[in-house]
Amino acid sequence: MLGECEHEYLEPNEEEIVQCSEDYILFRVACIRCGMVGFAGGDIAWNPTYWEDEAPESDSQPHNPIPRG
Ligand SMILES: [Zn+2]
User: Fold this and answer.
1) Which pLDDT score, from 0 to 100, does residue 61 have?
2) Which of 11, 13, 24, 29 has the most C-beta neighbours closer than 10 Å?
3) For 6-40, what is each residue's pLDDT tens digit?
4) In angstroms, what is the span from residue 69 Cα to ligand 1's centroid?
């Protein structure tokens, strides 16, 4: 039956990482059916990065005081 394997592999974990760059990652995987070793990976679609705004210390006064009347 050699040559007919569809090559299934388990979800790779961090220990199987063979290459990891800013936007690309590569895992070493082994087929759970025939044991063949291969590689799986691809581009990483990073989520947008959010940075907390630094609160300006000299601007603690309210900008829009509610007018009373
Ligand atoms: Zn296989």
Assistant:
1) 62
2) 29
3) 999 998 889 999 999 988 999 999 999 999 999 99
4) 79
Contacts of 6 (CB under 8 A, 6+ apart): 33
Distance of CA 9 from the midpoint of ligand 1 (Å): 8
Residue 40 domain flag = yes
Using a CB cutoff of 5 Å, list residues around ligand 1, an ion.
Answer: 5, 7, 31, 33-34, 36
Domain housing 46: 15-69
Total structural domains within the chain: 1
- Could you give the CA distance from residue 69 to residue 57 in angstroms, rounded to a whole number? 31
- The DSSP H or E segment spanning 3 is none
